[in-house]
Sequence to fold (189 residues):
Amino acid sequence: MPEGDESYYTNSAEHPQDRYEDYVVNDLIGDVEARFPVADEPGKRAIIGISMGGFGAVKLVLRHPELFVFAGGLSSAIDVPSRSFSIHRIGPWRHHASIFGPLGSATRRENDPFLLARSANPAKTPYFFLTCGDQEGLLPANRSFAKLLQERGFKYEFHVVSGGHHWHEWNAQLEAMFHSLWQHLATEH
Fold:
């Protein structure tokens, strides 16, 4: 997994040098293809993440569907760009504002998976494998996102699993996620 520095794999609104989306879709893919004997075609490429990385995987696939065949998001922090101000979580809110800009900004809209899914072409968007624990605060947002995918006709699967926001839950989902990934790599070619 590439280091994300709590960036949500987004080009920062406040810090122009923090170009994490560019890093993944331009630099990282090119570097991996240059260094390792991997397939260099989008039909063989997947992106997977957990929590912030799950948000990044989903968002990057929606913004760059031509680059991937599969996106895996485990306990994705899918609603971060649309979260409103909370005095109880002022630190995270300030951090998110530095990445996504102020509420209602173009940067927030351009990086909000809900808005991206509403305008994306489901027929040209890769397969989504999504999970969230039944004891996570992220579950309502993940359920809403899965409902949107269903309503719009995206190819996806969403699993509510037992547990909270921790490695024990995520490790338990890896076998099913990789099984789904292998199935979708095989059907693309």
User: Anything to note?
Assistant: The domain at 20-188 is CATH 3.40.50.1820 (Rossmann fold). The longest strand covers residues 127-133. The chain has one domain: 20-188. The helical segments are 20-35, 52-63, 90-100, 106-110, 113-119, 139-152, 167-188.
